[in-house]
Amino acid sequence: MDTLEINANNWVENYSSMFYSYTYSRVKDPNLASDLVQDTFLAGLKSLERFEGKSTIKTWLFSILKRKIIDTWRMQGNRKTVPFSTYQKKSDDSDTGFENNIQSVYRNGEREYEIKELREILFNSIYSLPKKWIPIVIDRLIHEISCEEIADKYDITVNNVWVIIFRAKAKLREDLTDKLEMAS
User: Fold this and answer.
1) pLDDT value at position 155?
2) Could you tell me which of 25, 27, 92, 180 has the fewest CB atoms within 10 Å of its CB?
3) Tens of pLDDT, residues 64-113
4) Looking at residue 103, what is its pLDDT?
5) Which helix (H) or strand (E) holds 162?
């Protein structure tokens, strides 16, 4: 049990960034995502004595996190994603389905223009961040480099990378929300 307790001291540093990214991609709310990650660590600490070692700590904590996300969806009464099956082509309906949805996206030239415009807005927002953050944010959010690799590359701690990314996302969200509201 001593080894597990030692690992518990490093959970935030080792798993926060990954758990937060995963959670945010599901709940689309930064505060809720942070709360769920923190709740996961607390639940893990409370039930650490019951951990049987049949999986890694990371896998065990991840399963706790997934259950917390599902519980949140149930409480909210709506899921943030649409099941893939809603886009699948039905055998009796040749004019609807996934294939037609894809074709309509490609036929719509405005869609490509909007994507380019959004990309420009996003990169302008990234370049308005503090100069020391920019390469870290690009490496993490655009190139999807792990926090550990980024920490080694810029000679900072993994926790520092996570804090920079968290703060950068908050600033980007605020900046993008302002810019998109002005464009509307």
Assistant:
1) 93
2) 92
3) 999 888 888 877 765 445 444 444 444 555 545 555 554 554 455 555 66
4) 52
5) helix 158-183
CA 110/CA 136 separation, integer angstroms: 32
Beta-bridge mates of residue 90: 93
Query: What tokens appear for 171 in the block?
Result: 């600033």
List, in order, residues 6 or more apart from 7 with CB less than 8 Å away: 57
Tokens of 28: 């689309």
Cα separations (Å) of 155 from 10, 159, 161, 165, 174?
A: 19, 12, 10, 16, 28
Helices (H) and strands (E) counted in the chain, each on its own, are 8, 0
pLDDT score, position 109: 55
- In the block, tokens 């804090």 appear at 163
Domains of the chain, each with CATH number or no CATH: 1-81 (1.10.1740.10), 108-184 (1.10.10.10)
Provide the sign of the torsion angle of the four alpha carbons 82, 87, 90, 96, taken in this order.
Answer: positive
Q: What is the largest CA-CA distance in the chain?
A: 62
Count of CB atoms within 10 A of residue 126's CB?
Answer: 19
User: What is the per-residue pLDDT across 135-165, written as a single tens digit (0 to 9) for each?
Assistant: 999 888 888 888 899 999 999 999 999 999 9
Please count the other Cβ atoms lying within 10 Å of the Cβ belonging to residue 101: 12
CB 125 within 8 A of CB 116: no
